[in-house]
Amino acid sequence: MDKQKRIPIIPLKQKLFTVGVLVVVLSLYAAASIFTGSSPARFMNGIPEMFNFIINDLIPPNWSYYERVFPALLETWNIALLSTSLAVVFSLPISFLAAGNINKKLWLYHPVRFALNVLRTIPDMILAVMFVAIVGLGALAGVYALFFFSLGILIKLISETVEAIDPGPLEAIRATGGNILQIIWFGALPQILPQYVSYSLYVLEINVRASLVLGFVGAGGIGLILKQQMSLFNYGNIAMIIFITFIGVTIIDTLSTSLRKRLV
Amino acid sequence: MIEFRNVSLTYPNGHQGLKNINLSINDGEFVVIVGLSGAGKSTLIRSINQMVKPTAGELLIGGENTLKYSDRKLRQFRRNIGMIFQNYNLVKRSSVLRNVLAGRLGHTGTLRSILSLFSQADVRLALESLERVGIADKAYQRADQLSGGQQQRVSIARALTQQPKLILADEPVASLDPPTSHAVMKDLKRINQEDNITMIVNLHAIDLSMQYADRIIGLRNGEVVFDGPAASVSEKTFEDIYGRPIKEDDLVGDVSNG
């Protein structure tokens, strides 16, 4: 018995692993910094320029420009609302197909999961460009893009909620002779209802912000006029757009967050 | 009549849950299955309604080998079997009445059930079931607002609403205190006698088994090691089934007026 031997608090293996992870993360950071040509010094130098831009160019906003901004913001909101509502309806049945504890048919489960993974790899911007090409410039392209975008997110979130529910009630309904739809409706749905509503509101928040940007590629809404004014270097108008957008998004987020808190 | 003929069940991980079971259970019997945890009580009870499917042998009910049933036939067959679980398995966020109405799902079309278009006869039946277990006044409360004993009564009412020929109860009182345990066992016994519903109950408490069973079946390591009328059973029998001396923990306590 060698009592002198030090008893480590963290085993050597685990220490080496932690150090290894740190080294990898740091070298990734270094690589990113070199390849993008950015450095902490350049980042710091940019800060005063940012303030100059805000003070000299953005202030004061062109207050009377609200006449153009307001309808555009409304369009953005409508795009977000419509696409989210459609996605909320369509995501529910697909979510159950994508939940392993409900859909036990592997030949169906795996293709559904695969299709969803593919769908989620497409960024919202690419979807928007695609749909602008398909249905033309305007809000409709934005609705389509955000519909598919939110479908991906919602199904992911809801199917994982379904997979985490208490299996007891499902078993009980199965034991009464209920079929799969009855198991879902009576056993699973009541259990996920609060999260379902909460996620839907959360995706609505995401979509309001996403639809602001979609206008840049011609999919309607406030992004469209933001892009126009930026190419005209019309900073007073841009400031007004940013201001109204900020207020609009804050109101929507606050309402939605307080609603969600009450649900779960 | 339920007949097990050389029924075995091997789980996918290789564990043998049941080994060559041969049993026949008559209509209207109150059978208690005893054994230590892991002895195969749950597996035996669940293989009757095929919540787990035996891998060998024949399971005859009314002369038909139920292991050969198609999915559809199996669902129809399950309609006539009520099941009661240790953890009640109620949908906690739903009302008591809605939980009890789940007992009618097997008899209600999918679309009708999803739209909650249960017939008035079904709703009345559900309320009657709740009345029989003494909690009709809780019908519109959420299931999670009830005590454990009340929740187990809701699950009994759900089973009753199926108007079953057979009720399977898997450790129905293991989560309850002694007086409530006796009350729930009395409910089961009463239903067995009044409706002549065959009752197959898993228990590990010796005194409860002896008090309420007509017949006791002992399991150890997936095998039947005892089968006889409750009257013929003594503590010695249990020591043989358990393969060890009886301990204080094996008794619920004699609070028979609970």
TrEMBL record, chain A:
Enumerate the transmembrane spans: 16-35, 77-99, 126-155, 206-226, 232-252
**Which SUPFAM superfamilies does the record associate with it?**
MetI-like
Highest rank taxon of the organism: Bacteria
Question: What family is this?
Answer: Belongs to the binding-protein-dependent transport system permease family.
The record's principal subcellular location, in a coarse class, is membrane
User: Which Pfam families does this one have?
Assistant: BPD_transp_1
Listed PROSITE patterns: ABC_TM1
This one is known as Phosphonate transport system permease protein
Cellular component per GO?
Answer: plasma membrane
What phylogenetic lineage does the species belong to?
Bacteria, Bacillati, Bacillota, Bacilli, Bacillales
- Please give the InterPro entries that the UniProt record associates with this protein: MetI-like, MetI-like_sf, PhnE/PtxC
Q: What membrane topology is given?
A: Multi-pass membrane protein
GO molecular-function annotation terms? Answer: ABC-type phosphonate transporter activity
Q: Per UniProt, which keywords does this protein have?
A: Cell membrane, Membrane, Transmembrane, Transmembrane helix, Transport
Sequence ranges assigned to domain ABC transmembrane type-1 in this UniProt record: 73-256
The cellular location(s) given in this protein's UniProt record come to:
Cell membrane
From TrEMBL, chain B:
Kindly give the Gene3D superfamilies that the UniProt entry links to this protein: P-loop containing nucleotide triphosphate hydrolases
Q: Cross-referenced SUPFAM superfamilies, in alphabetical order?
A: P-loop containing nucleoside triphosphate hydrolases
Keyword line: ATP-binding, Cell membrane, Membrane, Nucleotide-binding, Phosphonate transport, Translocase, Transport
GO terms assigned for molecular function: ABC-type phosphonate transporter activity; ATP binding; ATP hydrolysis activity
Q: Which residues form the ABC transporter domain?
A: 2-246
Among the Pfam families in the record, one is ABC_tran
Taxonomically, the superkingdom here is Bacteria
Q: Which GO terms describe its cellular component?
A: membrane
Q: Does the keyword ATP-binding apply?
A: yes
Q: What is this protein called?
A: Phosphonate transport system ATP-binding protein
Top-level taxonomy: Bacteria, Bacillati, Bacillota, Bacilli, Bacillales
